[in-house]
Amino acid sequence: MARLSSIESAKRIRRVVKSKSAKRAELKAIIMDKTVSPDKRFEAQLKLAAMPRTSSATRIRNRCMITGRARGVYRKFNISRIMLREMVADGLIPGVRKASW
Fold this sequence. Notes:
Elements: H1 4-32, H2 38-50, E1 73-74, E2 79-80, H3 81-90
Antiparallel strand pairs: 1-2
Helix pairs in contact: 1-2
């Protein structure tokens, strides 16, 4: 199981990204708009750079919802490969079963 601090940190980063996403999108739209004056675009760049780093969506790390494991996480289920295998073997995930041929 992952450290509790890393799980809580990931939750905090998700909250910050969610709260700041609208402002970041607004600033990025201004920066990418070629019809806006260069001064306004540069000002928008400075504002974007002044925002917290954790407000960027690339800072989000996928983690297993059960164990907090950061590697080998299936996006469709939001759980790690290890937990997925255990849950499928126990029949806890509907529509999925262990392959055998």
